[in-house]
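Re: [help] complex structure
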Amino acid sequence: MADLTALRFRNRLYYVLLAAGGLVALAGLYAVHMMESHGHIITGMNNQIVWGMPHVFAIFLIVAASGVLNVASIGSVFGKSIYKARAPLASLLSIAMLAGGLTVLMLDLGRPDRLMVAATNYNPTSVFAWNVLLYSGMFSLVAIYLWTMMERRMNQWSKPAGLAVFAWRFILTTGTGLIFAFLTARQAYGSALLPPMFIVLSFAWGLAVFHVVQKVIYAWNEKTLDPAILQRTKNLLGIFVIGSMYLVATYHLTNLYFAHQSGFEHFILVDGGVYPTLFWWGYVVLGNLLPLLLIYLPGLGKTGCVVAASLLVVAGAFALLYVFIIGGQAYPLNIFPGFTVSSSFGDGQIASYHPSIYEFLLGLGGLAIAFIITTVSVRVLNFMPQDKAYIPD
Amino acid sequence: MSDLNTQRRQFLKTSLGAAAVAIAPGMLLFDTAHGKAEAGSSKVRWGMLIDTAQCKDGCNDCVTACNKENGLSGGTAATDSQWIRKIELKDIRSGRELSLPMMCQHCEEPPCVDVCPTAASFKRADGIVLVDRHRCIGCRYCMMACPYKARSFVHEPLQDQKPDVPRGKGTVESCTLCVHRLDKGQQNTACAEACKNKAILFGNLNDENSEIAQKIRSVASVQVRADLQLNPGIRYQGL
Ligand code: SF4
Ligand code: SF4
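Output below.
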């Protein structure tokens, strides 16, 4: 009887969660409607900060979507059984986040109604256009991969499918990095380090999201995760966090090395107001150091700590992307080296940006889409990791 | 080296030909709008020579003329379109001050065209870089890529547009070198015409007898951010 009550409660909770996700998604749609009828004037974006909060959300989702597949790859490509058991959930999360991220990107366009134009007029030299191919390819590949894992008769194909996904997501995140790396005239971007930096960041962000979702699913099913398994994935998260910090540091150090970039670095790291704050406190302290402590400090590192660490990594990701995308545009383009400049169009000035509620609603709408896809799928299909008695491999 | 250059140019021309086929529908729309059959020939490369010594600090005549010609509001809020703007410069070392107009530089190797996912940004055979407003999806990648910050995004619905100058909310726009005038056979842009000090000289860079070509041969002029090797069609004198 008690069981039944618990079941009823969980059923109800499921619908409440779904409704909450739906509401957030609806709020996102409302924001889109407002942006469509009033134009981008109601956002905080302008002619200096042309990409804003929606892009922070979208790029987080897309990068994490690629990184979460790491869990699957370690399983299929390197044959580690605890990861293999988690490959379906990781693939599902990837599809869900990719869908959420792409929706945000598309609905932020000035003319989202012209998406067909983008599909039919393809400019082969545009990194953006390559990314459209990369994203749709990733969708199909991961869907196929999921199918080979979920359908027993297809199991034999799951290894090659996993390999294909493994390769594809590297290219995909490289493509995301290239969007910025090709902007050679901007001090913040145009660095060959960006693609590898994004790849390592994707590992950390993806695994962090995975930890959180896994925790929720285990709690939902009233199961506890084998501490030995958690031990291994949390160490991996630690390594990814250290790795990404290393690449972010290298990116800034190489910028400092080039004299013409030092003004920009000074801005981002020292006197740029909200950007250095977000960088040091948001990204470095909250997003890296604190999670590392939670993971590695003796006595810590239990489930709760790992989930907290993962949530912090995600928060740090948003801080870093904000600094990278918006701070990168706020610093004035150096059109006339050797001159101080001023104009009516923001030349020589730090551009200001105040994200509006509509941008947040749109971004949160993307998160909600990812949430709904995950929740519904986990409910109707079996994505619960099935661990055999633990064998170290 | 120059041989290589000619080869490269030849290649570019061929690819331009191919590109022209690809963008023909947009061009057709464009041309019927102005009643002219051929859209610029590669014998022409439109460009400008801007003499900063003649350009007066505080004078805004070119900007006003551009706004009027193209139906821009003239507002200077961060969300308003500015196709041309006056920049006041001060040499950090010598303290020398100067003033100049800045607009789309009509690059020969335009990054905005390279990055545009839908090929809405394109370069005509006569070197003018334009945005096809029927094709632009408003992604703003070209604004990120332009080294001169020459482009504006239309943030609001527009009223009272000029029939000759199509614009639209949610799309990106920039200086067209008054292409609507040129295609009607006029030989000057609104900004150059408006400058009392004759600081802007407009003309065909490829015609060696044109005033602009002759002047470029005889006076020292530079391209802004020449290090990026985009070969802009706008050159500056006295910078
Ligand atoms: S100045 Fe900017 S908008 Fe104009 S052609 Fe060059 S890159 Fe494109
Ligand atoms: S905003 Fe328009 S013109 Fe610019 S890159 Fe995007 S589609 Fe092309």
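Residues B 115-118, 120-121, 131, 136-142, 172 surround iron/sulfur cluster (ligand 2) (CB under 6 Å).
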